[in-house]
């Protein structure tokens, strides 16, 4: 089932706002965010920048090949966050970011940067269960620690409850919640228009 909260305006100037749009694809680690991003980028629409921590992880591990991921994880996260804030503040018409979206301080930082840059913000939440997300982590060959996953899952449940409430949009231009089946049918036009397909 797809749930929409908040107004869903038609994209202006073809990109959602006079200064561009930020699309955040949120979900538990392993829920399918990277898969969705890659499929959206495969459309090769001009002016679209995709940001995913997997790209940073691959670069870091190519250099620090002998180090386990748990050792390089803090560097990956720091590098990725710098990239995100630069891109959101930059000139790209469309920025598509994958993120668990479970850390309030990070959400606030990203949204403040988007507001400063004059971007409209659309949130697409992939509602996959913890079990499904953990199987996704296994498939990609990298699982996060159980304690971290528990924190993500607890905050994720709270986020889903919040967006389902009367003030769920929280100032965003559109919030869309989809399961993995519906996420597999989303196009870039759907995401920019706030539709769930």
Task: Give the secondary structure arrangement, pairings included.
Blueprint: E1 3-5, E2 21-26, H1 33-41, E3 48-51, H2 53-63, H3 69-89, E4 94-99, H4 104-117, E5 120-126, H5 130-140, H6 146-164, E6 174-178, H7 180-183, H8 188-193
Parallel strand pairs: 2-4, 2-5, 3-4, 5-6
Antiparallel strand pairs: 1-6
Helix pairs in contact: 2-3, 3-4
Q: Which descriptors apply to this entry?
A:
197 residues, alpha/beta, Rossmann fold, six-stranded mixed sheet, 6 strands, 16% strand
What does this structure look like?
The chain is an alpha/beta fold. The protein has one domain (3-193): Rossmann fold (3-Layer(aba) Sandwich). Helix content is 48%, strand content 16%. Strands 1-6-5-2-4-3 form a six-stranded mixed beta sheet, sandwiched between helices. It is globular.
Calculate the mean pLDDT score and round it.
83
CATH second-level architecture? 3-Layer(aba) Sandwich
Number of domains: 1
Question: CATH H level: which superfamily?
Answer: P-loop containing nucleotide triphosphate hydrolases
Strand order of the largest sheet: 1-6-5-2-4-3
CATH class: Alpha Beta
Care to give the gist of this entry?
Helix 2 packs across helix 3 (69-89) and helix 3 (69-89) packs parallel to helix 4. With 197 residues, the chain is an alpha/beta fold. Helix content is 48%, strand content 16%.
């Amino acid at each position: 089932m797809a749930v929409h909260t908040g107004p869903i305006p038609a994209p202006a100037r073809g990109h959602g706002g006079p200064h561009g749009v930020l699309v955040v694809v949120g979900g538990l680690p392993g829920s399918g965010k990277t898969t969705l991003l890659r499929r959206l980028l495969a459309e090769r629409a001009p002016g679209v920048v995709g940001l995913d921590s997997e790209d940073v992880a691959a670069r870091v591990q190519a250099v620090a090949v002998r180090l386990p991921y748990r050792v390089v994880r803090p560097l990956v996260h720091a590098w990725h966050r710098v990239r995100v804030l630069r891109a959101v503040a930059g000139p790209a018409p469309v920025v598509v970011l994958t993120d668990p979206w479970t850390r309030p301080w990070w959400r606030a930082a990203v949204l403040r940067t988007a507001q400063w840059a004059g971007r409209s913000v659309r949130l697409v939440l992939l509602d996959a269960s913890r079990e499904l997300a953990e199987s996704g982590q296994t498939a990609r060959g990298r699982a996060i620690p159980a304690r971290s996953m528990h924190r993500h899952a607890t905050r994720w449940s709270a986020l889903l409850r919040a967006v389902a409430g009367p003030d769920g949009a929280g100032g965003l231009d559109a919030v869309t919640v989809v399961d993995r089946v519906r996420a597999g049918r989303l196009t870039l036009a759907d995401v920019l228009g706030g539709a769930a397909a």
